């Protein structure tokens, strides 16, 4: 047998051993997933789909939901419950989703305090806000495709020159301020403001006032904003109200907002966040040091157009603007 052939066979054998070792680790692993929000929130469902696309059949998954989008004051208690669950499970790895899971759970309980690898995703803040990367923490940042969405909207809405960003006031909204400050000078239309109301009545008043100032509104999220009766509303309920008050197209960043009536978006993908975090965790469980796992930011985007909104506003874009975009109707 030639020396070259021996090297090939030896390399093949090593590869089999490494793959078998990874499969053995993965098949036996237990992973705790801590979500910042509730299990009905569409974003969390997208992230969960991404995690499960990688880990189903390889790891046993346990989920803990902190529910901070509905009840912000319960966050510390829910984080403590998640830590108690962590102690009970003694998982091989943890995936922590969105910012509140970092500030309330990972940083106080796990960062640099345990050997358990933690992969985060859906994080809007800069990583150094949480002291990341840490000895046992890495993951994936989340950034909105604001530039890309406005540029896309200009292909659909003639003479789009100004826009405003609106969303429910929250810690996540405050974190978006930094992204906006970093990018604002590059936006293809003038940003006239970033508005963060705390209640529905205030949001509707702002939308009505912006009708004479902005050509479109970038709708981020108003999920679980309260109405005059203290009822917590979903985005599916709020989008039509904001659209009616503004009277012009809304643009956004999530697929479920497009289904609710927003005109278009270059969406960020929760599935990308979840699958990348899961892949990173598998690398660590297979023997890669956490220090060798770089922090990334989301790269993928998908263009979506609501054709119901197109018809409502009498918009007739050039065929090239529709190429490669997913076309959906409100409520479907």
UniProtKB/TrEMBL annotation:
Gene3D superfamilies given in the database record: 3.40.50.2300
InterPro entries named among the record's database cross-references: ABC_transpt-TYRBP-like
- Return any one Pfam family short name: ABC_sub_bind
**Per its UniProt record, what PANTHER family does this chain match?**
ABC TRANSPORTER, SUBSTRATE-BINDING LIPOPROTEIN, ABC TRANSPORTER, SUBSTRATE-BINDING LIPOPROTEIN-RELATED
Q: What is this protein called?
A: ABC-type uncharacterized transport system periplasmic component-like protein
């Amino acid at each position: 047998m030639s020396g070259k052939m021996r090297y090939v066979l030896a390399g093949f054998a090593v590869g089999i051993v490494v793959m078998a070792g990874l499969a053995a680790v993965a098949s036996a692993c237990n992973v705790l997933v801590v979500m910042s929000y509730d299990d009905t929130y569409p974003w969390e469902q997208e992230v969960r789909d991404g995690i499960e696309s990688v880990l189903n059949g390889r790891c046993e998954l346990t989920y803990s939901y902190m529910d901070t989008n509905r009840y912000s004051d319960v966050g510390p208690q829910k984080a403590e419950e998640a830590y108690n669950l962590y102690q009970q499970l003694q998982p091989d790895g943890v995936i922590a989703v969105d910012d509140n899971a970092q500030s309330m759970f990972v940083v106080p309980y796990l960062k640099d305090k345990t050997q358990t690898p933690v992969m985060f995703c859906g994080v809007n803040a800069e990583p150094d806000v949480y002291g990341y990367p840490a000895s046992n923490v890495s993951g994936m940042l989340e950034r909105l495709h604001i530039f890309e969405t406005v540029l896309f909207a200009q292909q659909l809405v003639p003479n789009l020159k100004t826009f405003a960003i609106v969303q429910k006031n929250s810690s996540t909204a405050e974190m978006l301020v930094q992204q906006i400050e970093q990018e604002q000078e590059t936006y293809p239309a003038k940003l006239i403001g970033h508005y963060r109301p705390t209640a529905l009545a205030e949001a509707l008043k702002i939308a009505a006032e912006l009708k004479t100032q902005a050509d479109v509104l970038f709708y981020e999220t108003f999920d679980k904003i309260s109405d005059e009766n203290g009822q917590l509303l979903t985005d599916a309920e709020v989008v039509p109200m904001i659209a009616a008050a503004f009277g012009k197209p809304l643009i956004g960043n999530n697929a479920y907002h497009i289904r609710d009536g927003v005109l278009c978006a270059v969406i960020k993908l929760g599935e990308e966040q979840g699958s990348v975090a899961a892949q990173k965790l598998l690398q660590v469980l297979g023997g890669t040091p956490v220090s060798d796992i770089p922090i990334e930011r989301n790269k993928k985007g998908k263009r979506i157009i609501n054709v119901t909104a197109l018809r409502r506003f009498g918009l007739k874009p050039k065929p090239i603007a529709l190429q490669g975009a997913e076309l959906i109707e409100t409520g479907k």
